[in-house]
TrEMBL record:
Domain of life: Eukaryota
Protein name, as recorded: Transposable element Tc1 transposase
Organism (species): Trichonephila clavipes (Golden silk orbweaver)
Domain Tc1-like transposase DDE intervals: 16-104
One Pfam family per UniProt: DDE_3
UniProt-listed PANTHER family: HTH PSQ-TYPE DOMAIN-CONTAINING PROTEIN, TRANSPOSABLE ELEMENT TC3 TRANSPOSASE-LIKE PROTEIN
GO-annotated molecular function: nucleic acid binding
Lineage per the UniProt record: Eukaryota, Metazoa, Ecdysozoa, Arthropoda, Chelicerata
Length: 150
């Protein structure tokens, strides 16, 4: 399992989650505090955080952490990965790893390949998927009544 953040003209390092189950507390300790908090600090007050609505991301402890750090979360429908631009990035990363001359043969070589290919992803690709978020949000919110269709 991996985590990374993207934005126009930037990205975080790829974080490889160690063995075990991702809990709300692990999410806070391994992702929010060391990565998201710093990313938010670099971006400033206009920073809006989007995650993938996983159960561990929705714990009260996670929300308390986001609130205490002044991190605004984008609210969007659960189980709608097509709305999350990072899914396109994961697809591109998966293709790059699969296209390597020497595909990974074990966990360690997979981790190394993921990190190397993450660093090679074009910033233009990341910028494009972030910019696509405007279209994704517009297609899901009905401007006449403000309701999100299900």
């Amino acid at each position: 399992m991996v985590w990374a953040g993207i934005m126009i003209n930037g990205r975080t390092f790829l974080h490889v989650v160690a063995n075990g189950t991702m809990t709300g507390q692990r999410y806070i300790d391994e992702v929010l505090l060391p990565h998201v908090r710093l990313f938010r600090g670099a971006v400033g007050d206009k920073f809006v955080f989007m995650d993938d609505n996983a159960t561990c991301h929705r714990t009260l402890a996670v929300q308390d952490c986001l609130d205490s750090e002044g991190i605004q979360r984008l609210v969007w429908q659960a189980r709608s990965p097509d709305l999350n631009p990072i899914e396109n990035v994961w697809d591109a990363l998966e293709r790059q790893v699969a296209d390597r001359n020497y595909p990974p043969t074990n966990k360690n070589t997979l981790i190394r390949a993921l990190i190397e290919e993450w660093d090679k992803l074009s910033q233009q690709l990341l910028d494009n998927v972030v910019q696509s978020m405007v279209r994704r949000v517009e297609c899901c919110i009905t401007p006449h009544d403000g309701h999100i269709p299900y």
